[in-house]
């Protein structure tokens, strides 16, 4: 297949690209970065790249400024939104104007779609009202018109992806490495996650399932409170788990970004499991062992 990935030069895009190329697919990358082999764009207009869509079987929207950028000032929060919504609008325009439209569009989004409070969420749970939830709503809505163009559209709501190079995992593993790991906040909060190999596997699985449409939660099935997760991390890294980090410290250091660690809602991969996907790393022990042991 011919595949175009917008925002494909980051951690997740690189992992997905490698997997696709290994299976013989041809992958083109749209990015703001100026690098060999990359088609440069501004994430807003179709000039210079729009005609590429005519050649594509699949278009993937992974563009968006990392939420690990902090502090979350008002201009930065606007940048989070613009870097997701405008690329979606541009991709939608390019596909609408294409002589030959792709059969599949993959829209990425975040598991924070469901808000910070409530019972464990599945794909039927309505969106929350907080900043991150509403960010995902705007992100997804930018490409929703593609469904009216008879393009199969997947909406993949991704949790924290466990990978050594993920900034959140670096933030969590560093104190453990230096023997000062411990409970973060209350420890009872949810920390939805998925191993990067399962993230790639789930994306590939849904791409090839012609019946798959609409939202899917990319989250491991065996979710635990954050304290159990960090205890497992310390066990795998052979370090103690004894130094608590109270909420006020993280909130003072990270500001509003602290909600990504201190607050969260459990979620289930209901539709993904129903589709027949089998997780390589369903629980934290096997996932963290694969990364750190």
How much is the radius of gyration in Å? Answer: 19 Å
Cα(first) to Cα(last) distance is 36 Å
The coarse silhouette is globular
Query: Mean pLDDT score, rounded?
Result: 93
Q: Can you write the helix and strand succession as a string?
A: EHEEEHEHEEHEHEHHHHH
Low-confidence stretches: none
CATH architecture assignment of the domain at 2-161 and 193-220 and 266-280: 3-Layer(aba) Sandwich
CATH fold label of the domain at 2-161 and 193-220 and 266-280: Rossmann fold
Structural class: alpha/beta
Roughly what percent helix? 25-40%
Beta content: 5-15%
Q: What is the number of E strands?
A: 9
Characterization of the model:
- By secondary structure, the protein is α/β, with parallel strands linked by helices.
- The protein has a domain at 2-161 and 193-220 and 266-280: NAD(P)-binding Rossmann-like Domain (Rossmann fold, 3-Layer(aba) Sandwich), CATH 3.40.50.720.
- The protein is 37% helix and 15% strand.
- The protein has helices at residues 11-22, 74-97, 131-141, 167-177, 196-208, 226-236, 247-254, 259-262, 270-274, 284-292, and strands at 2-6, 26-31, 38-40, 58-61, 104-110, 152-158, 160-162, 193-195, 214-218.
- Strands 3-2-1-4-5-6-9 form a 7-stranded parallel β-sheet, sandwiched between helices.
- Strand 1 (2-6), helix 1 (11-22) and strand 2 (26-31) form a beta-alpha-beta unit.
- Helix 6 (226-236) packs parallel to helix 10 (284-292).
- It is globular and about 60 Å long.
